[in-house]
Amino acid sequence: MNTEKINIYTEIVPFSKSIDCTVDEGVYIDIYFPEKKIRNGYSILAFPGGAYSFLSEKSGKEYGVWFASKGFTVFVLKFRLGSKGYDFKSICVDGYSAYNYVSSKSKEFKIDPQKIGLIGTSAGAHLAGIMSTGAGNDILKQHGVDQYTNLDIKPNFCVLCYGVLSLLNPIAHIETRKNFLGDYRDLYEYQEAFSPINYINENNPRSFLWHTSRDEEVTVDNTILYARELFKKSIPYELHIYQKGGHALGLAQHECLYWADDCARWIVDN
């Protein structure tokens, strides 16, 4: 397996806090390439968890290594964080820009642009949910995000791992909401607009979701309600609710949940 690190911004860093907007603020993707003989043609853009406060290696590097070993080309995004003073504008422009960058470089990366999907974990699943549903697009446009990147994307699939899929009480994860919305955290309009559950539509990509019923950090209601809306809209999906295990399990190999094996099979076979 080969790896590579690439900055997604070569000139202007949108919504930079630096006086010099060309300063590299550390927004990059780590790429994990599968061995040529096992390459299956699918690519995954991964958004790690961490409540928009930090980026967990459990749902970043470990995903990259594991899924590459199964034939996927994996792009793990290091996006900006609320804990560093950024908010939804920077987080979303990083996510969309990464997707558009990967798609535009498909020949260079030797991937199929029609087979790029998303995998998000916890807060990273919130970002993946936004990009899959178009949640918050009107507000993003009001803040000028569409001046920097294309918001009209169509991932081949979306994998949501114990995701924060609503910013509305009573199921919202408060720290994630605070770090994502920043100064707008208490505005209902923003909480509702950036709740992917509310924006599932017929154009959603097929989805794979998993959670544990005993997760005390991010309630499983997020995943169950999201799956219910997928069902209502006749969007193909696979749902796994595990009895054991808490939050932030990553690949969950120690818990013997093996969701990743099911997910890898699902991506290729459906």
Low-confidence stretches: none
Content-based structural category? alpha/beta
Cα-based radius of gyration, to the nearest Å: 17 Å
Strand line-up of the largest beta sheet: 1-2-4-3-5-6-7-8
SSE order in H/E notation?
EEEHEHHEHHEHHEHEH
- Please give the largest β-sheet: 8 strands, mixed
Terminal Cα span: 26 Å
The CATH superfamily turns out to be Alpha/Beta hydrolase fold, catalytic domain
Q: Which range does the strand content fall in?
A: 15-25%
Q: Could you describe the 3D structure shown?
A:
This protein is an alpha/beta fold and 270 residues long. Helix content is 31%, strand content 17%. The chain has helices at 61-69, 88-104, 106-109, 123-133, 137-142, 174-181, 188-193, 221-232, 259-269, and strands at 2-7, 28-33, 43-47, 73-78, 116-121, 157-161, 206-212, 237-242. α8 links the parallel β7 and β8. The longest helix is centred in the middle third of the chain and has 17 residues, at 88-104.
TL;DR?
With 270 residues, this protein is α/β, with parallel strands linked by helices. The chain has helices at residues 61-69, 88-104, 106-109, 123-133, 137-142, 174-181, 188-193, 221-232, 259-269, and strands at 2-7, 28-33, 43-47, 73-78, 116-121, 157-161, 206-212, 237-242.
